Predict the structure.
Amino acid sequence: MSDGLKIDDWLDDERDALTDELEAALAPRRPDPEAFGAGIRERIREAEGAEGGAEPLRMGPLSMERLPEPAVAGGLGWAAGLLPPMLLSKGASKAVLGAGTAAASKVGTKLTFKALPALAAMPLFTLLMIAATFVYAIRGQLGLSGDGAQRTDELEAASAVRAWWGRNLVPTLIMTGVLVTVSALNPSGFFEDGLVLLLLASAVAAVAQLRGLSAEGLASREQVGKLMGGVLLFVFGFALQAQQFVDVAGSASSAGTLERIAPFLVVPALLLSTSLCLGLGKAAGTGSRKHVVQAVAIWALMIGVVGPLWATFGHVEADAEDVRGWISEATEEELSEPSRWDAFGQALRMMDAAGEPLPDLSAFEAVVHRQLAREGADLNSLYLLPLLRMDEGLGAGFAADAALPEALRVELKDDSGRIEVPGRDHFRSSDHNLIELLAFRELARFDESVVARTLYRRQELEELMAPNPVHWTGPGSEDEVRRIGIEFWPELFEGTWRPLLVAESPDFAGIVAAGRSELVALILRDLTEPDRYRAVSDYLNAADALEFLEASERVPSLTNRVHRALLDSWVRTKNGRSGVFKGSVDADERDADGVAWEDSVFFGWVDTTAAAVEAMARWGVPRAPADGSRPAIDLLALERYLVKTAHTFGGEGCSSYSVRAVGALSLLRTLPEFQAQLEAHAASDGLLDVLGRMPLAISALLLSFIALFATLRAPVEDRSGVEDADGASPAA
Amino acid sequence: MDLDRIIDRWRGPLVGLLGARGASPADAVELAQDAFSEAYLGRERFEGSWEDDGAVGAWLRGIALNLLRAGARRRSGGHRLTLVGDRDALDREAVDARPEAEAGPVLAAVGRLQESWREVLMMRYVEGSGLAEIGALLGIGERAVEGRLRRARTELRRLLESDGAVEVNS
């Protein structure tokens, strides 16, 4: 029984009827050995014919031995196993992956110093492989695979991608862990420097690794050129984004010529090296040098197009001239946005104080006039303050009073045309204090005005009319007792009291005199503490109020508080290159030396920073306290932040942030303390300091140089050798 | 090591494995041929030794089952990655996939066995393959194959006797 099957290892009781039944039942599934083998050979012939486009091969015994592999150094072989396979051309992929795989298998997890460059290249490769994995997954899902040889290539590529993940999952996970850890620990401001340096170092390592492969004869100039071009294109795209995050020297006074020029070289250098690498690679593949000429021509064309576009719509630094031009030439739509008026007012005040010419404000004034007429009482009263302060700060350049339409300045008058004024007895008998009476009177005067209507609408009129401190329970505060901040004062002064206090009417003379004194006393009594949120801005408002109340001599008494508030709100980035003034700094944000650090500086802090510059112009730059509890203020770091914030991106014009930054820069550079720090910096700044401040440019230029060097040094492929190997093996 | 020797050694158990996993007789042969040609064309990616049964078995099993899954996805209307060689055979919708009753009582009973038992039976008796090759393809040891084979035969015998279809006493 069961003699039909040739089984060498029969079980004890296997030769039985059941086995015979199984043998018979499965006989139709038993392939004919000859036909089976012929079918396999036919498939191989088709695949290799499609691959090489050659005549069908003579089919002798097919050796399963691998193609001869070049000798690969241990570390380099391990590194080759990390290479993303789709980066390589098919021939190189076979050679490199075969070698790398074998080497990786032998080396295993034993890392050597020679393998470190490959490990350094892992972040870049990981990103590329994730992208490739997505591409193949999407193509597979969407059925975008091609036909014939292309399908075979895609299958092999997809298989190679899977194999790469299988081989490199552990190092990739380790690298991901390193990235997450570096990000979490954030040793030097990850987004500012860490990410840029890590990925650029990774790109440099990748380029160096490919150079090593070509030196071993594993990659030809054609392959290396394509790879370099791909890596550089990736870095180019990244650099465009990174320039928004890293420090830009721009017009910073502390930046030397090299530092200012370098950022402008990044894009052209990366584009040129990309074009040249691709051109050299193609030239090596085709034997025609015209591809190099074409690459340079394409680069020149791109620079000719991209350059002007970048200068216009790219990352462009705005200056005072830009602000003047923008305000003078802005459309009504751009100027009629009330949220920008405060930024314009502050910037123009600071530019004016710095001696910068002011733009022609007539168009702006006309726009504001029309906006007030259009919105009337619906205009948020907070937007009136910037206008009124512009009127005060910019003199004849901008007349807010003139901008207020007549319809909004209706005074309460009796039938005879006299201003109807409540009698003094009314005020004296009132339980209200003088301030409230002043406010009441002013409201009566502007009963039909925008100010009155908007203040009435707030439903907290009484609380708002009384200056600090007032404890109240109002909308939004529920049962919580809330302190009205001094930030409301300017609105009150400018919107209500100021017109009254400057009135010439004899009816108000006595009230005005008493009111001034009482207001000054209240201001000085209720000054914000230095550690409160936006204390510097409060002091500026208080100083404005004191000067308005003709008590300018009291302003210097605020100096100590202002200096304390400035030192308390000063924050630097961890790399030390930028610094800002925040609204406030919590105690847990400081280290043991009292220094407050931020990973990166936020452009939205420019309003508190600009206020601080105004405060330093008024009260001077504070020195570091003798007890060392707070660091000194680095005005050059402050300037770098303002220069960066003054940049606009994408041709957006002057944003509110950049306008404030330009105004603050103008004023900052006039401070004597700034000039002193600049001179001290110039005396101590070395070349290494300069290079340390421009990691992106240095890395990009270095990478471009290495990529070109690697491409030029890679050997031109001898195709005849490859063809021999491919053709000989099947017939061996 | 040449391809012919590998084909001779692994053809039977591979065809049996594919059949046990649901491929029709014609598809099982086609897929096995595809698997061998894939293995040859992609031999550079093979990391082990051709003398190592375990490595070769795992390599062939991975290719064959991937091809089987890809073919199943295509028949089910989904998209799949492409296969090397003549794929038209896979389009012939299981021409030999007769109803179990028509395939005979023995195969009908085999089809009712759990997959691990069905696998060893079909891999063993399509061509009479050794325990070593079966174990290598399945990624298990020879003793495990033997154990499965004994249990599979016992259960198959019980099924056939209960059906009264055939006398299978040894």
